[in-house]
Amino acid sequence: MFKNKKVFISALILVAIIPLSVSASWFWNKPTAQKNVSTITNQTTGLSGAEKTIADAKYKIWEDGFEKKNIDSVIANADNFWFTVPELNYLFASVSATVKKPLLSDFKLTDDNNILSVSANFKKFVRGHVSFTAQMTNDNNKVKLDLSKVRIFGLPVPSSWVSKPLNDGIDEYFAFIYNDSRYQGFTFSNDNGVLKIHPEFK
């Protein structure tokens, strides 16, 4: 199980949104001293300044609900949890640049005909360069990632080596929602690289 705090998905969303969880948070540790985020993100994304501002605002909505475990905020913003693939790559680069010991580095998410591919250098739980394709599924109203084409250092490995720890982390990340009596499930969509998760409540 992961021991870090603060992660996004991947992940989510991953990963397929997303989220991707670390001890109740997504792929990042607690923030430390700021690095030159603008330089890093300009090298890894093609977003304009205005598009980055929008992505940051959307992440703030996600953070206020999911990272802070504020169920009322999640309910109020249930229609607003969506990101484009470039936004997710930008957000990962900008947030991970502020972290002392990130779980991942060199994260890259791509979308090909609504099939998501992930590539990253994992520092913990699986060490080394890992790549896979991912689809988000609904298992008894819980978010699950169905992984395929899993490779570590370019060598194929059983998908369970990566999917089990990721799905265990996702269960932990979303537990505060699953345990709320108002929660009714979720829908997920990937429409031409626009990833959206919509939690549903009474």
Q: Could you please describe the fold and organization of this structure?
A:
By secondary structure, this protein is of the alpha+beta class. The chain has one domain (10-201). Helix content is 31%, strand content 34%. It has helices at 37-44, 49-67, 71-76, 85-96, 160-173, 175-178, and strands spanning 10-12, 21-22, 25-26, 82-84, 104-112, 115-122, 128-139, 142-152, 155-156, 183-191, 194-201. Strands 5-6-7-8-9 form a 5-stranded antiparallel β-sheet, covered by helices on one side. α1 (37-44) runs antiparallel to α4 and α2 (49-67) packs across α4 (85-96). The longest helix has 19 residues, at 49-67. The chain starts with 9 loop residues before the first strand and ends with a strand.
**In DSSP terms, counting alpha (H) and pi (I) runs of 4 or more, how many helices?**
6
Q: Total domains, how many? A: 1
Mean pLDDT: 77
Distance between the termini: 32 Å
Give the ordered list of helices and strands.
Answer: EEEHHHEHEEEEEHHEE
How are the strands of the largest sheet arranged?
Answer: 5-6-7-8-9
The share of residues in extended strands comes to: 25-35%
Shape: globular
Task: Tell me roughly what share of residues is in helical segments.
Answer: 25-40%
The count of strands amounts to 11
Low-confidence stretches: 1-44
Major pleated sheet? 5 strands, antiparallel
Q: Provide the structure class.
A: alpha+beta
Estimated radius of gyration: 16 Å
